[in-house]
């Protein structure tokens, strides 16, 4: 909106009065006269939100709020994270991505196309924020379980970084949602006149990696030490292998998911009453998440006394061609070879049911994108084979979940130890309220990123990822443990992120990759205080911005009159 401003008066400000702040900001008269507290503003937002019927409408409303009043948005999310996370993240973000181009209204991140190679650095210079500390980057090739969504996948970096701010206190202006437009295999989008990405097939793996080389260099040149989170790439292994030892980066789907599932599995294995050596895990899905999760659990089983070979043999991975074995006849991609079995005939075990009948698993893990793949028949068998079957349907969004909480509970007489990727509500079962766990990497990636930023880690080591899982598994309260929960209450996620970040920092220090000197001598209490002191707090941020403006008013002749920033992340306080 463009408004003609009267000249800014300089002499008559009452610096304790918010209307003076408005006059200084030249917003006086543009907003109704009452100066509402943030509490009242939040109440208004919640009411407006509740009037919208569809989740996607709520998503769009919240996006608008983030772009117009960033601190209010984050205060709202922080205080109501359990209710709002499903609206700005999975499952709603899936629908938001599908509709991204048709709903587009304003920039929310940076888009870099294959055509930009050779001058990626200059595109980065267009980003209006100076002090970026973390980016979430995707090429949109495997968005949740929805397949190749091209640049419409931008909802994922935007959503993940919103959680970084709400759940781990990373300043919003320190985050960069990054979309790599490398073409798309989605013919529907190529034919769609409203699709806003390049309407060409995807570039090859080699071309993509070459492009990534330039991107990683350019990012680190512009923001040295920036933490890079790779997200939702169809084949993320080559990039992690190449850049992992050279830059501060991690892959959320391989490593973050591995850590979050391990965090829940540690508790589930204890509750199942069977030691690690007696666990048998069948995985539906042998992709980035499936293999990442299985590898983290192998590391845990080894700490429980198994050799690597013994630990590895506790896993049977099933992909779209059946059980992953050496004798299948197809050339297995590198990431599947580690778990490929040589003791079962592939011909006999083509379906999940056949593999399950063979193995009689104690753990059933779903990272396949196939909604409903854990049939009531299979779930019932899990209940017959186990006193406490561990059932984790982890695919997102909700429609892709391998089973519902209700089916898992009904088919196992309420005995399942359950976690899903997208949230399910509690259910009443035989007079009891049963609450499902949410095994989603949102429990760890904010703390991993915060820990990497604060320790100034040069790389993200496997020990840092493992430490995040252990921290998560230890973060349950006595009352949560008494109810046999596998994950802490989502409303406490900020506290959980602090614990995760602390352990990540300690692991970075131990691995010799931390460059921040302050953390060396800190005990736990001091470290916790220090971590918390570094976290963005939307309520105090609002007060700080108001104070800053008042200070400027007191000191007007010397000031330049600017307050805060006003970048793409909406660093604007429109209520002032
Ligand atoms: N809860 C959480 O925090 C997370 C959940 N996820 C979810 O996990 C799912 C998978 O992600 P990701 O591993 O990255 O994806 P990938 O594409 O890398 O892997 C998918 C795997 O599922 C297999 N698959 C596909 N269709 C079938 C089928 N009909 N029968 C058996 N197996 C099948 C694929 O087989 P093939 O190899 O033969 O193609 C592949 O091994 C997604 O839905 C994603 O949302 C991912 C990360 C975190
Ligand atoms: C949660 C997540 O990262 C995924 O589904 O890909
Ligand atoms: Mg992901």
From TrEMBL:
- Give all residue intervals belonging to the Malic enzyme NAD-binding domain: 254-509
Record region (Disordered): 555-576
Needed co-factor(s)? Mn(2+); Mg(2+)
Provide the residue positions that the database annotates as binding (S)-malate.
142, 396, 440
Describe the location of the Malic enzyme N-terminal domain by residue ranges. 66-244
UniProt key word Nucleotide-binding: no
Active site: which residues?
Answer: 89, 160
GO BP annotations, alphabetical order: malate metabolic process
UniProt xrefs under Pfam families: malic (PF00390), Malic_M (PF03949)
Binding of a divalent metal cation occurs at 231-232, 253
Q: What does the entry list under GO cellular component?
A: mitochondrion
Q: Name one GO molecular function term.
A: malate dehydrogenase (decarboxylating) (NAD+) activity
Report the co-factor binding details: Divalent metal cations. Prefers magnesium or manganese.
Alphabetical keyword list = Metal-binding, Oxidoreductase
Biased composition regions of type Low complexity, renumbered to the chain? 559-570
Task: List the NCBIfam families hit by this protein, alphabetically.
Answer: PRK13529.1
The entry assigns this protein to a family as follows: Belongs to the malic enzymes family.
**Under what name is this protein listed?**
Malic enzyme
- Originating organism: Ramalina farinacea
């Amino acid at each position: 909106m463009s408004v003609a401003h009267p000249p800014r008066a300089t002499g008559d400000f009452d610096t304790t009065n918010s209307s003076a702040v408005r006059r200084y900001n030249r917003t006086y008269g543009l907003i109704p006269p009452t100066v509402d507290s943030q509490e009242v503003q939040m109440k208004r937002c919640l009411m407006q939100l509740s009037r919208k019927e569809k989740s996607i409408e709520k998503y769009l409303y919240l996006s608008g709020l983030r772009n117009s009043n960033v601190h209010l948005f984050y205060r709202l999310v922080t205080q109501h994270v359990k209710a709002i996370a499903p609206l700005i993240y999975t499952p709603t973000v899936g629908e938001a991505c599908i509709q991204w181009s048709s709903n587009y209204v304003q920039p929310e991140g940076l888009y870099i196309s294959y055509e930009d190679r050779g001058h990626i650095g200059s595109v980065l210079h267009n980003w209006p924020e100076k002090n970026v500390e973390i980016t979430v980057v995707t090429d949109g090739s495997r968005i949740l379980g929805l397949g190749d969504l091209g640049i419409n996948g931008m909802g994922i970096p935007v959503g993940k970084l919103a959680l970084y701010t709400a759940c781990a206190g990373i300043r919003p202006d320190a985050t960069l949602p990054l979309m790599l437009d490398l073409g798309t295999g989605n013919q529907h989008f190529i034919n769609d006149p409203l699709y806003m990405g390049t309407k060409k097939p995807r570039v090859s793996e080699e071309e993509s990696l070459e492009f990534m080389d330039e991107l990683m260099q350019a990012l680190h040149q512009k923001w040295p030490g920036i933490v890079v989170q790779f997200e939702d790439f169809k084949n993320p292994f080559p990039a992690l292998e190449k850049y992992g030892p050279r830059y501060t980066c991690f892959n959320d789907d391989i490593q973050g998911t591995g850590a979050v599932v391990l965090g829940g599995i540690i508790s589930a294995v204890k509750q199942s009453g069977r030691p690690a050596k007696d666990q048998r895990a069948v995985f539906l899905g042998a992709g980035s998440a499936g293999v990442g999760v299985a590898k983290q659990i192998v590391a845990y089983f080894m700490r429980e006394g198994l050799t690597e070979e013994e630990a590895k043999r506790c896993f049977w991975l099933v992909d779209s061609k059946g059980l992953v074995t050496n004798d299948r006849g197809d050339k297995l991609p590198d990431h599947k070879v580690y778990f490929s079995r040589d003791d079962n005939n592939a011909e006999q075990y083509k379906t999940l049911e056949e593999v399950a009948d063979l193995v009689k698993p104690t753990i059933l893990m779903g990272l396949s994108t196939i909604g409903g793949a854990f049939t009531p028949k299979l779930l019932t068998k899990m209940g017959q084979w186990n006193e406490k079957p561990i059932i984790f349907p982890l695919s997102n969004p909700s429609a892709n979940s391998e089973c519902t909480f209700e089916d898992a509970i009904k088919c196992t007489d309420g005995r399942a130890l359950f976690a899903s990727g997208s949230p399910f509500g509690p259910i009443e079962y035989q007079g009891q309220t049963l609450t499902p766990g949410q095994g989603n990497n949102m429990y760890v990636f904010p703390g991993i990123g915060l820990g990497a930023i604060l320790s100034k880690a040069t790389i993200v080591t496997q020990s840092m990822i493992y430490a995040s899982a252990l921290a998560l598994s230890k973060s349950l309260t006595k009352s949560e443990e008494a109810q046999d929960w596998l994950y802490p209450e989502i409303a406490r996620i900020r506290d959980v992120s602090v614990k995760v970040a602390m352990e990540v920092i300690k692991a970075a220090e131990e691995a010799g990759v931390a460059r921040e000197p302050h953390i060396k001598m800190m005990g736990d209490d001091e470290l916790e205080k220090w971590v918390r002191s570094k976290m963005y707090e939307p309520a105090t941020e609002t007060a700080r911005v108001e104070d800053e403006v008042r200070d400027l008013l007191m000191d007007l002749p010397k000031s330049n009159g600017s307050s805060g920033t006003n970048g793409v992340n909406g660093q604007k306080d429109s209520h002032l």
